Amino acid sequence: MGAQEPVFKMKEGTDIPDMGNAPLPVEPYISAEFFEREREKIFKRAWLEVAREEDIPNPGDYLVQDIEVLKASVIIVRGQDNRVRAFHNICTHRGNKIALKECGNAKHFTCGFHGWVFGNDGELKMITGKEYFPDYVDENKLGLRSLACDTWKGFIFVHHNPNPPQGLREFLGAMADQLDAFPHDQCQRIARYSATPRVNWKVVLDAFQEAYHAIMVHRISLPNSASGAGNPAAMPTSVRLHGPHRSISAWANPGYLPPETGMIVGKYGPSFATQKGQFPGTNPSDDDNWWFDINVFFPNFFCDVGPGWYFTYNFWPVDVNHTRWTMDIYQLKAEHAGALLAQEHTKVLLRDAVLEDFGTLEDTQAMMESGALDVLTISDGEIALRHQMNVVHQWLARP
Ligand code: FES
Ligand SMILES: [Fe+2]
User: Fold this and answer.
1) Beta-carbon neighbour count of residue 87 at 10 Å?
2) CA 332 to chain centre
3) What is the mean predicted confidence (pLDDT) over 69-95?
4) What is residue 275's predicted lDDT score, i.e. its pLDDT?
5) H-helix or E-strand containing 164?
6) CB-side exposure of 161: number of CA atoms within 13 Å?
7) pLDDT tens sequence across 327-353
8) Is residue 223 pLDDT above 90, yes or no?
9) Atom of ligand 1 at shortest distance to CA of 128?
10) Cα 271 from Cα 226, distance rounded (Å)
11) What stretch of H or E contains 156?
12) Ligand nearest to the CA of 94
């Protein structure tokens, strides 16, 4: 905390470990060697969110997710038994990729190289010309290679280790407890945005886990919405650290008036800028002037929630300075035309806001790579960045 007494005080909703107040070194954002360690010690050892169950509602429905940081292409498929499984997209004969479309429905996957056939439960069903293979070749041992796969509230997670030491629910811990009451199942996806900027994954992720930037970056799309006389630097209202995960509540300026369209649609349905108030699974610290919660699941998934809507981000590292970013926006299912208008409003407002967010990122990365700056200077309001970096270092230090 600085020498001046702050106007606004952030609440702490959980114990906050002492993480010091030192500046954060730049090196982890620009070092290829550091990135390789993150690949091995973080991404190959964490549960990673990949899709929603409603993306593959019927037996045989599948989607393919290329996960660059795992150097893998992964098939996520609902079997005839309704169970969702995840497999490496590789034929166990000579390594060809077996599912070539991004999504579809299939009882079987037939390899396009020599015609081996796999069931949607991963079992090898048929070897073409089996009689020409040695006796030891056994279909039962040549099924598709699995990743661990589990779901929480409709979110599908995979783990590179088929037998991870920690189950999904245990990994999510108190972060999941906090969100358990949120009605994800009553919402529908209304938009997906994606981009692959030339930027390290932590630089993009950091830009979405603090509200301090709203005072400049969002002065066009959301002027004075997250800051105002009572909170000029857009400090969060509260913060909670849940193991490697964290939750930050953003402050809403009570004096903020959205533009006229926002006011009109806000009468008919939830919208990002206009709806305030109590809603299950939100505002866990019961803050005044609460806007929404930024919920960060380590290492690379966000589920931000507000009254009647939520949106998710996935930050997929491609290499040290490229990140594939996806945003999915969900809102309570529309039951009348007015609610559809509110959905459209959220979609367009968030599009404009994230375009503003992306305006700084590539320049930030390029400037950090210049080597002119060794450290980043962090405020109390940017505690989420400090926590993320702290957890990254903890995971890298594991044997
Ligand atoms: S590589 Fe798939 S059948 Fe040969
Ligand atoms: Fe932003």
Assistant:
1) 26
2) 20
3) 98
4) 63
5) none
6) 14
7) 999 999 999 999 999 999 999 999 999
8) no
9) 3
10) 16
11) strand 155-159
12) 1
Question: Which ligand ends up closest to the CA of 99?
Answer: 1
What is the distance of C-alpha 129 from the center of its chain?
44
Q: Which atom of ligand 1 is nearest to the CA of 115?
A: 3
Reported confidence tier of residue 88, pLDDT bands at 50, 70, 90:
very high
Question: Is there a contact between 275 and 307 (Cβ–Cβ < 8 Å)?
Answer: yes
Please count the residues of the chain: 399
The answer, yes or no, to whether any atom of ligand 1 lies below 6 A from the CB of 94, is: yes
Q: What is the pLDDT of residue 2?
A: 55
Beta bridge partners of 124: 118
User: What is the pLDDT at residue 3?
Assistant: 61
Give the torsion through C-alpha atoms of 339, 103, 301, 70, to 10 deg. Answer: -170
SS3 per-residue string spanning 7-22: CCCCEECCCCCCCCCC
Please tell me the predicted confidence (pLDDT) of residue 169.
98
Tokens of 31: 């070092």
Tokens of 303: 């589920």
What residue owns the CA closest to ligand 1's atom 3? 114
Q: Any idea what the Cα angle at residue 236 is, between residues 312 and 51, rounded to 5°?
A: 10
Query: 144 CA to middle of ligand 1, Å?
Result: 12
Distance between CA atoms of residues 270 and 284, nearest Å: 19
The one-letter code for the residue type at 396 is L
